[in-house]
């Protein structure tokens, strides 16, 4: 259960949490066309709260809306301000933020011409998405029988609401079988991403991550690329298969919710030593330093509240 905060920003106004309700004919509820973001705010070492990579998340929100031809009736700056103000109004020092763009009620059917485009920013407190133990010791990943979207089936560069049916099917399948997270392969059979995270493997000191062809181009993925370069660790965007992962030295997932989570097992094969490896640990540590404002090099990623 999400713990209620005081207010939700809906269509330009803060309203009490319990009053943030929509009509049953809300178009997105029926047909799944909507876009959203997942953003985190952390309490920094200096005691202040900062939203991590807020302009980049808002930019991706607008890109997603552009791809899906939804006209957001606010500016990027309005959304950034709504995120900042939501944390202030809710007295939240650390939180997960969920900007959501959806089609409101009006016409039904697949061509809703004049239905309002509605906008919400919801904030709540959310711990480690794949668990504290997962962050520390690594998670068990399982390849799902569900394939990641083909790029001409869903718009994979958009963080579209409906895209997540595929993720939910995969996640349910593997959690029911006792694993922590699902790995999805692309339609050619190569590794794409996890149900809500990008994936990285390490072999002989080189990090590899799938190219952004059928994946959501993650903002945390971008952080990993920047951090790896800064640390002098070679990193490549390259296709690889699930058996490349079986024999990798290390593997990890990246995502706003999951942060940097080591993978200790895939399909019942131990990866490397079965414990988070040195490169994974270094990337994870640097990422956590960055989000907490402990590394001046990454201060431009912080929007103080
Ligand atoms: N892939 C998918 C399918 C996701 O849902 C997410 C989480 N938004 C990611 C990758 C990682 O993206 P980010 O690092 O921007 O959170």
From TrEMBL:
Key word Transferase present: yes
Pathway the protein acts in: Amino-acid biosynthesis; L-valine biosynthesis; L-valine from pyruvate: step 4/4; Amino-acid biosynthesis; L-leucine biosynthesis; L-leucine from 3-methyl-2-oxobutanoate: step 4/4; Amino-acid biosynthesis; L-isoleucine biosynthesis; L-isoleucine from 2-oxobutanoate: step 4/4
The keyword Iron appears for this protein: no
Keyword tags: Amino-acid biosynthesis, Aminotransferase, Branched-chain amino acid biosynthesis, Pyridoxal phosphate, Transferase
Cofactor(s) needed for function: pyridoxal 5'-phosphate
Record field: transmembrane: none
EC numbers: 2.6.1.42
UniProt catalytic activity: L-isoleucine + 2-oxoglutarate = (S)-3-methyl-2-oxopentanoate + L-glutamate; L-leucine + 2-oxoglutarate = 4-methyl-2-oxopentanoate + L-glutamate; L-valine + 2-oxoglutarate = 3-methyl-2-oxobutanoate + L-glutamate
A single cellular component GO annotation: cytosol
Any GO MF annotation of the entry: L-valine-2-oxoglutarate transaminase activity
Gene3D superfamilies linked: 3.30.470.10, D-amino Acid Aminotransferase, subunit A, domain 2 (3.20.10.10)
Enzyme class, UniProt record, top EC level: transferase
Domain of life of the source: Bacteria
Single biological process term from Gene Ontology: L-valine biosynthetic process
UniProt similarity note: Belongs to the class-IV pyridoxal-phosphate-dependent aminotransferase family.
Function field: Acts on leucine, isoleucine and valine.
Protein name, as recorded: Branched-chain-amino-acid aminotransferase
Organism: Desulfobacca acetoxidans (strain ATCC 700848 / DSM 11109 / ASRB2)
Gene: ilvE
